[in-house]
């Protein structure tokens, strides 16, 4: 055996590796099937005919579709009230310019901040040792730029919201370019949709010759339209999220309703979605805030200080399948005798030391609750306060009372409840009102706000292959055509610098999130 320490990967890294393997298998299968259909003479001709009719093309890690069906629609929209559209897209130039300044400032600031943080490791370590509220492990959720990967930091049950929001944001971005081009009398050759690795996207194919024939100012209206439309979408999403509480007050009642329960939860089949939580381990629950407050209270208590139950000595003897006198702190008196049984500790008159009794958990938890032995004295002198015991000081027996069935006994850690169960504070007043205004629609708009802002943020950067490249060139040409011709090489250097800066920031985001 080797004494060398093994490299331990975080759960996030393991999920990322598993996702990469799944993607490799998927795209390898697509490539093999596509290659085989094109290779064999019996399928080649009909397969190519199908691809052409769909406007489909398949390459490595990419499936795309191209269509001219929407060209007339773009033209009709752009030709209705063109003077108002021109005012609209002129505003877009200023919004895109402000977004570009903000984006470039952030991209310069973040690497400098990272270097500054790396130069002060001693100060950071001392602060964490003295302040218990500051986590030693970096908080990924506070990163300014972070990768969003389904199956890693996007729950599988939110994939529908994720992909729909991403598709809406990209389509709205390209719709801005297409309408602006029609307003400026630039022909739209077609539009395309694609799936690259894992992410859907869209693009519009504009007539480059006609774009070069119009003035730089008119070009700016076209190039800035995508960023502008994404920022408009951000405003729409934020406005909805702000007015949502007013909608909830009039059509929903305040309660603690189950919004989501993960399939890997041990009580997935026992706790119905949209059921109302009433009590958790003796702590009354009325809203989602109460739920998380109760979880914190339970977590802060030591395992031996958890809620107990009042039983007479006769009841203990009747319910016990095994009794251990002089129970030690690291011994489980049940020894896995049954999944229904749990080890409880108590004191008796005959034996002042701590005793352990292996009893059926549901029968015990139906008795009155107690925290101290004195809480049971009112019920008789032979009544003892028995409380659940765990040898690992992590596992707990927690009783959850809800509205759609008998109380649930959860055996596990508090962190598992945090991770697998989500609670919302509202429930519909009337049966005909859907709950999508509580969960699905707000979640969708949260993704829309995040994705749309990200598209505007990155496309505003003067970077190769993004809108910012064309915005910068058209902006300089509009300010001074002679300067544009004389300093063209300097503009290329600026694009290279901004492209490198963007790559550095994205690389740092991945490194800080996964390492």
From TrEMBL:
Catalyzed reactions per annotation: Cleaves several transcription factors that are type-2 transmembrane proteins within membrane-spanning domains. Known substrates include sterol regulatory element-binding protein (SREBP) -1, SREBP-2 and forms of the transcriptional activator ATF6. SREBP-2 is cleaved at the site 477-DRSRILL-|-CVLTFLCLSFNPLTSLLQWGGA-505. The residues Asn-Pro, 11 residues distal to the site of cleavage in the membrane-spanning domain, are important for cleavage by S2P endopeptidase. Replacement of either of these residues does not prevent cleavage, but there is no cleavage if both of these residues are replaced
Membrane topology per record: Multi-pass membrane protein
The enzyme's E.C. designation: 3.4.24.85
Transmembrane segments: 15-38, 50-67, 87-110, 222-243, 444-466, 491-514
Keywords: Membrane, Transmembrane, Transmembrane helix
An example Gene Ontology CC term for this record: cytoplasm
Cellular compartments annotated: Endomembrane system
Keyword S-adenosyl-L-methionine among record annotations: no
Biological-process GO terms, alphabetical: membrane protein intracellular domain proteolysis; regulation of response to endoplasmic reticulum stress
Every Peptidase M50 domain range: 162-502
InterPro entries: MBTPS2 (IPR001193), Peptidase_M50 (IPR008915)
Gene Ontology molecular-function annotations: metalloendopeptidase activity
Chief localization: membrane
Keyword Transmembrane helix set for record: yes
Purpose of the protein: Zinc metalloprotease that mediates intramembrane proteolysis of proteins such as ATF6, ATF6B, SREBF1/SREBP1 and SREBF2/SREBP2. Catalyzes the second step in the proteolytic activation of the sterol regulatory element-binding proteins (SREBPs) SREBF1/SREBP1 and SREBF2/SREBP2: cleaves SREBPs within the first transmembrane segment, thereby releasing the N-terminal segment with a portion of the transmembrane segment attached. Mature N-terminal SREBP fragments shuttle to the nucleus and activate gene transcription.
Listed name of the protein: Membrane-bound transcription factor site-2 protease
Organism listed in the record: Rotaria magnacalcarata
Taxonomic path: Eukaryota, Metazoa, Spiralia, Gnathifera, Rotifera
């Amino acid at each position: 055996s080797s004494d060398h320490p093994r490299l331990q990967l975080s759960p996030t890294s393991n999920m990322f590796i598993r996702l990469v393997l799944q993607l490799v298998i998927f795209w390898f299968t697509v490539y093999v099937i596509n290659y085989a259909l094109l290779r064999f003479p019996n399928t080649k001709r009909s397969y190519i005919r199908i691809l052409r009719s769909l406007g489909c093309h398949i390459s490595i890690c990419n499936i795309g579709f191209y269509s001219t069906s929407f060209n007339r629609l773009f033209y009709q929209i752009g030709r209705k009230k063109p003077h108002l559209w021109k005012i609209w897209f002129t505003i877009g130039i200023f919004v895109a310019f402000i977004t570009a300044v903000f984006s470039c400032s952030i991209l310069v600031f973040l690497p400098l901040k990272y270097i500054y943080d790396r130069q002060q490791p001693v100060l950071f370590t001392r602060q964490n040792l003295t302040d218990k509220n500051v986590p030693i492990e970096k908080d990924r959720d506070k990163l300014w730029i972070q990768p969003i990967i389904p199956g890693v930091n996007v729950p599988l049950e939110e994939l529908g919201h994720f992909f729909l929001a991403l598709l809406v944001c990209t389509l709205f971005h390209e719709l801005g370019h297409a309408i602006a081009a029609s307003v400026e009398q630039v022909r739209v050759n077609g539009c395309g949709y694609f799936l690259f690795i894992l992410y859907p996207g869209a693009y519009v194919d504009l007539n480059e010759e006609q774009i070069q024939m119009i003035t730089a100012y008119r070009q700016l209206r076209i190039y800035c339209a995508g960023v502008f439309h994404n920022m408009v979408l951000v405003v729409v999403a934020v406005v909805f999220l702000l007015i949502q509480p007013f909608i909830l007050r009039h059509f929903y009642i305040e309660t603690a309703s189950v919004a989501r329960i993960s399939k890997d939860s041990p009580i997935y089949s026992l706790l119905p979605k949209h059921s109302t939580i009433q009590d958790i381990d003796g702590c009354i629950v009325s809203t989602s805030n109460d739920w998380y407050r109760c979880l914190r209270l339970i977590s802060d208590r030591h395992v031996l200080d958890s809620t107990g139950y009042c039983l007479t000595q006769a009841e203990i003897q009747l319910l016990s399948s095994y009794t251990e006198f002089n129970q030690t702190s690291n011994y489980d008196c049940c020894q896995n005798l049954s999944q229904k049984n749990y080890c409880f500790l108590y004191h008796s008159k005959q034996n002042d030391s701590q005793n352990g009794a292996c009893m059926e958990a549901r029968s015990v938890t139906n008795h009155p609750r107690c925290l101290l032995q004195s809480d049971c004295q009112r019920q008789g002198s032979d009544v003892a306060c028995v409380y659940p015991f765990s040898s690992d000081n992590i596992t707990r027996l927690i009783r959850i009372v809800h509205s759609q069935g008998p109380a649930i006994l959860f055996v596990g850690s508090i962190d598992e409840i945090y991770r697998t169960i989500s609670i919302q504070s509202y429930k519909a007043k009337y049966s005909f009102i859907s709950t999508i205004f509580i969960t699905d629609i707000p979640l969708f708009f949260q993704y829309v706000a995040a994705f749309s802002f990200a598209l505007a943020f990155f496309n505003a950067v003067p970077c190769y292959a993004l809108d910012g490249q064309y915005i910068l060139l058209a902006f300089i040409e509009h300010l001074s055509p002679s300067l544009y011709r004389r300093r063209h090489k300097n503009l290329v250097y600026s694009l290279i610098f901004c492209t490198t800066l963007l790559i550095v920031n994205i690389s740092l985001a991945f490194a800080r999130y996964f390492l």
